[in-house]
Structures are given as structure tokens and as C-alpha cells.
């Protein structure tokens, strides 16, 4: 599976919600689309799901236009709409029939899905009695009904209380193993928990496409802390003479080391410590927290 978003722009009357946005997503990835409210996340996800048409640009799945590949995509809207008087089973049957699935298929797949999303035993309960987390899990079951190869989830955990949030995060952890995921959130810690790759969107434009480790590395101060069982004077001398080591500071049992390029030098330094039998207790990179990086990128603080 390969999803290509090519130069997508979506304008509502005078408002450009998504502006010349491109990205590629491949099988097995779980990508977090992060941005503040109004950034264009829901619009972009609806364009990718072929719910609305882009003003310019195109979406390709395995090289074919998305309108011809809708079966490959599952979509969980930001605000799923259920009929409160239907049971969970009736809801999935209704949704399945709407998307053209056959009765025999549904009879087989609905109990499997309800079990996957932890709603076995609730099949005959009315959706109106469900908690936020249960509704969201039912929404995920609906998005998985036709066994898509890519699932798009718009803010799947943002509106949930801590318990519902945990239920849905655990479920996404499981789905991740078999389905490629693109999800949006305005809460960075949620993205951090679910995804390794992030795409940051602001005012409809892509401003970052990066991995958690790259983001941390590129925003680090190139400083590391080696906490050791005992200070090894010999190694300190070796350290000070390494050409990529810029500064060494000792604080109790901690050695604070500044290097030229944390991404390149981190492993070299760790290997060097091992070679010199340094008794390492803890290793830490000093960097901005993700929250701080995000604020800098998005708000310019
Ligand atoms: P997000 O999901 O990141 O909060 P949206 O995609 O919902 O962002 O919205 C992006 C921008 O487009 C916002 O400024 C929003 O007000 C505007 N917008 C969204 N939907 C519509 C619409 N149907 N008509 C006009 N403007 C819209
Ligand atoms: Mg939204």
C-alpha cells in the first residue's frame, strides 16, 4: 500500500483550509498528523477519504485515484454520528450494508470485530447507553468493517475522558500491528504515544515531516548526561581529547558532555564508554521536550 497526497489545496469560499500539501505514507506506518485547532487536519483527512474533493491536487492509492480505491480506506470521523436507538450489532449491520457488504460477510465479521474492539457482550445494548470510549471503539469497528489496508482516524482520543482515552489508545496499539494508520490530534502527547512519525500542519501547510527521534535530536542542545557508578578519571582524559567532544562537566556522579552533533556522536560516545568499561547507570540526551518543540514550531514561541 502506498498513499500519495499530491499538492492538495482545499478552499472553502475564501478560506484556504489546506494549502499545497503533499505527503507519502507506506504500509505498516502509523503517522500522526498534528496541528492546533483550525490547522486543516479534518479537511485533509476528509479529502484523503474522498468525502470531499480537493480544489487542486490529487490523492493516489497504489498509483490509482482514491475514488476508485475507497474500499481500501477506513474512516473514523472526528464526530461519529450514531443512531442512539440502534444496538451495536444493528449499527454495524446498517453501516456495513451502506458500504455494500453482503449479509453473510457481516454475520461473520461483526462478532469478530466487536470482540476485537472489546465490545463482545454489548452487541445488543443500545448505542445511546455507551460511554464515550465505547462509542469511539464502535466507530473504529465501523471503520474496519470492510477490512481496509489504511485507516484514517480524526482525533480518535481528543474528546475522551482518561478511561476512554486509555481504552482507545490500547485498541489503536493493537490495530497498528495489522493496519496502516494515519491519525490526527492536537494533543502532542497522544501522538507521541501512538506514532513514531509526525507530520505537523499549521494554517493548512505542512511544516514538519519527521520522526520522534529526529525531532528530539534536531532540537537538542547537543548535550548528553552519562550517570556512572563511579567516575573513571582515565576515561575523562580520553573524553576531553575526542575531537567531537566540545565540553565536559562533572556534577557528582554525572558527566555532562557537549558534542558537535548529537545524532552522529551519540553512538560513538556510547561505544567509547563501553570500550573503556565505564559503569553506566543512566544515559540521557538533554533536549527540549516535545511540547516545547511543538510550541516553537506552531506558535513561534
Ligand atoms: P482542524 O481539523 O485542524 O481543526 P479544519 O480542517 O476543521 O481544521 O478547519 C480548517 C479551517 O477551515 C478552519 O479555519 C475552519 O474554520 C475552516 N473550515 C472547515 N470546514 C469548513 C467549511 N465547511 N466551510 C468553511 N470553512 C471551513
Ligand atoms: Mg478537526
From TrEMBL:
Domain ABC transporter as annotated: residue spans: 3-228
**Family matches, as Pfam families:** ABC_tran, DrrA1-3_C
List the molecular function annotations (GO) for this entry.
ATP binding; ATP hydrolysis activity
Note the SMART domains from the entry.
AAA
* Keyword entries, A-Z: ATP-binding, Nucleotide-binding, Transport
PROSITE patterns named among the record's database cross-references: ABC_TRANSPORTER_1, ABC_TRANSPORTER_2
Task: Note the InterPro entries from the entry.
Answer: AAA+_ATPase, ABC_transporter-like_ATP-bd, ABC_transporter-like_CS, DrrA1/2-like_C, P-loop_NTPase
Family listed: Belongs to the ABC transporter superfamily.
What is the recorded name of this protein?
ATP-binding cassette domain-containing protein
Q: Which organism is it from?
A: Paenibacillus foliorum
Q: What is the lineage of its organism?
A: Bacteria, Bacillati, Bacillota, Bacilli, Bacillales
Amino acid at each position: 500500500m502506498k498513499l500519495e497526497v499530491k499538492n492538495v489545496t482545499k478552499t472553502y469560499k475564501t478560506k484556504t483550509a489546506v494549502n499545497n500539501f503533499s505527503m507519502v505514507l507506506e504500509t505498516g506506518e502509523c503517522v500522526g498528523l498534528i496541528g492546533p485547532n483550525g490547522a486543516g487536519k479534518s479537511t485533509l483527512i476528509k479529502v484523503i477519504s474522498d468525502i470531499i474533493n480537493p480544489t487542486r491536487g490529487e490523492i493516489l492509492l497504489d498509483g490509482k485515484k482514491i475514488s476508485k480505491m475507497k474500499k481500501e480506506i477506513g474512516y473514523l470521523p472526528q464526530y461519529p454520528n450514531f443512531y442512539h436507538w440502534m444496538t451495536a450489532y444493528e449499527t454495524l449491520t446498517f453501516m456495513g450494508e451502506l458500504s455494500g457488504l453482503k449479509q453473510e460477510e457481516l454475520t461473520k465479521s461483526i462478532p469478530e470485530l466487536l470482540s476485537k474492539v472489546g465490545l463482545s457482550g454489548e452487541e445488543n445494548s443500545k448505542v445511546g447507553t455507551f460511554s464515550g470510549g465505547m462509542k469511539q471503539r464502535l466507530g473504529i469497528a465501523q471503520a474496519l468493517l470492510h477490512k481496509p489496508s489504511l485507516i484514517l482516524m480524526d482525533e480518535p482520543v481528543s474528546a475522551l475522558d482518561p478511561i476512554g482515552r486509555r481504552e482507545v489508545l490500547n485498541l489503536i496499539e493493537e490495530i497498528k500491528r495489522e493496519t496502516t494508520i494515519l491519525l490526527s490530534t492536537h494533543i502532542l502527547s497522544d501522538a507521541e504515544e501512538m506514532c513514531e512519525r509526525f507530520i505537523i500542519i499549521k494554517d493548512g501547510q505542512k511544516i514538519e515531516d519527521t520522526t520522534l527521534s529526529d525531532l528530539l535530536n534536531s532540537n537538542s542542545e547537543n548535550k548528553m548526561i552519562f550517570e556512572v557508578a563511579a567516575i573513571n578519571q582515565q576515561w575523562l582524559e580520553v573524553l576531553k581529547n575526542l575531537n567531537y567532544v566540545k565540553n565536559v562537566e562533572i556534577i557528582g556522579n554525572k558527566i555532562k558532555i557537549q558534542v558537535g552533533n548529537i545524532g552522529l556522536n551519540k553512538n560513538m560516545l556510547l561505544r567509547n564508554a563501553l570500550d573503556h568499561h565505564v559503569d553506566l547507570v543512566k544515559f540521557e540526551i538533554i533536549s527540549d521536550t516535545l511540547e516545547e518543540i511543538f510550541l516553537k514550531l506552531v506558535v513561534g514561541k
